[in-house]
TrEMBL record:
Biological process according to GO: D-alanine transmembrane transport; L-alanine transport; L-isoleucine import across plasma membrane; L-valine import across plasma membrane
Membrane-spanning ranges: none
Database matches in PROSITE patterns: ABC_TRANSPORTER_2 (PS50893)
One Gene Ontology molecular-function label: L-isoleucine transmembrane transporter activity
Protein name per Swiss-Prot or TrEMBL: ABC transporter ATP-binding protein
Domain of life: Bacteria
């Protein structure tokens, strides 16, 4: 029987820093089109797992397959080319570039015009450049940022910077979009709008999404499945309802508050 290929297949991945096992023997399988949450108390290993998925760190043990192909040892930009793009917990925009240029940078790798035509300023370069600007503006429209395209990214309010980061990740045309705390610092209205936006872009761009989020209303409201990490280990996986009522999960979160 043919083996099922998952879009993302994490097989017994671990990552140690000195004596600390930040991610310990984690396995997770995500099918194309799913919207999955990754939660856990502070220091559980969520960002470290994202860093393994995106080539920031290599797993100390285990394998990570994207579309059935191992991404072990790939650099972050190579993983982006293989179809996974991310946002960061601490926003990482090019603050001194315009909002438009932040998106164009991501779009650049998908542009058809060659470096050769750019250097020689051939007509195809200008056509390519105009096309890229047009596409970038389309992405900005989705995130209601087109009116601010010429502002410096660093001058946007926090919630808009978060949206711009997602627009930039999306412009890289990923199959898998990894969002690290997309609602952090947003007010309830912004969070609510973001939930709708995440669901909309998933449909529109045929995306698979994995998101880390502390805002439980967002996680429980949009995710179909949730993985829970605690002290580097996967302690639960299930639907939002299953996770809400899972004693191990409740205990992990109560431990955090104690
Ligand atoms: N580069 C590193 N060097 C040493 N320790 C690290 C490194 N990166 C992460 N850690 C440690 O690994 C553990 C997991 O951290 P991580 O940031 O992945 O957790 P998290 O679940 O994302 O936490 P939070 O919700 O607070 O962002 C923590 O104890 C952290 O201090």
């Amino acid at each position: 029987m043919a083996q099922q290929t998952f879009l993302l297949d994490v097989q017994n991945a671990s990552r140690t820093f000195g004596g600390l096992k930040a991610v310990s023997d984690v396995s997770m399988q995500i099918r194309k089109g799913e919207l999955v949450g990754l939660i856990g108390p502070n220091g559980a290993g969520k960002t470290t797992l994202f860093n393994l998925l995106t080539g920031v760190y290599e797993p100390s043990e285990g394998r990570i397959l994207l579309n059935g192909v191992s991404v072990g040892g790939s650099k972050p930009y190579q993983i982006t080319q293989k179809g996974a793009a991310r946002t960061f917990q601490n926003i990482r925009l090019f603050g001194n570039l315009s909002v438009l240029d932040n998106v164009k940078i991501a779009y650049h790798q998908h542009s058809k015009h060659s470096v050769f035509s750019s250097v020689l300023r051939l007509p195809s370069h200008f056509r390519g450049e105009a096309e890229m600007t047009e596409k970038a503006v389309e992405f900005l429209k989705i995130f209601k940022l087109d009116g601010k395209k010429d502002e410096l990214a660093k001058n946007l309010p926090y919630g808009e910077q978060r949206r711009l980061e997602i627009a930039r990740a999306l412009a890289a045309r990923p199959q898998l979009l990894l969002l690290d705390e997309p609602a952090a610092g947003m007010n309830p209205q912004e969070t609510h709008d973001l939930m709708n936006l995440i669901q909309w872009i998933r449909q529109e761009f045929d995306l698979t999404i994995l998101l880390i989020e502390h805002d439980m209303s967002l996680v429980m409201g949009v995710c179909e499945r949730i993985y829970v990490l605690d002290r580097g280990m996967l302690i639960a996986e299930g639907t939002p309802n299953e996770i809400k009522n899972n004693p191990k999960v409740i205990e992990a979160y109560l431990g955090q508050e104690a």
